[in-house]
UniProtKB/TrEMBL annotation:
It comes from the Eukaryota. This is Endonuclease/exonuclease/phosphatase domain-containing protein. SUPFAM superfamilies: DNase I-like. It comes from Lactuca sativa.
């Protein structure tokens, strides 16, 4: 069994190239959602096997792609969330309170747990 759902951050893609996606995924049996890059930075790609995960809706912002769908094998509604940016916890909680289902987060949360992980800046151990 291979990869069923993939989230990629910093794609630097301003438009979708289906041939590149086919090469990345390995075949033409895929569905996807993107959030375009701004200039030469950013960009998010979610790509999945439509026989494993059946998309219902896609919500896309500058910092996240949320794909609502059914995970076929487990037979449950879930939200696949690909993130690339600092996120406000209050906004995440508000979304999750109003949508029932399982949540799977993928991405770069820019989280720093220890002072040695952040070089050249001041470190705060305060968590939200």
């Amino acid at each position: 069994m291979g990869v069923s759902f993939l989230g990629i951050q910093e794609t630097c893609m301003s438009k979708v190239d289906l041939f590149w996606l086919k090469i990345l995924w390995g075949n033409f049996s895929f569905d996807f959602a993107t959030s375009s890059a701004c200039g030469l930075s950013g960009g998010i790609l979610s790509i999945w096997d439509p026989l494993i995960f059946i998309k219902k809706k896609v919500f896309s912002t500058e910092h996240a792609i949320i794909v609502e769908g059914d995970w076929v094998f487990f037979k449950f509604l879930c939200y696949m969330i690909s993130v690339y940016a600092p996120q406000e916890p209050s906004k995440k909680k508000l979304y999750m309170k109003s949508n029932k289902g399982a949540y799977f987060f993928l991405g770069d949360f820019n989280a720093v747990r220890w002072d040695y992980e952040r070089l050249g800046t001041s470190f705060s151990s305060v968590t939200t």
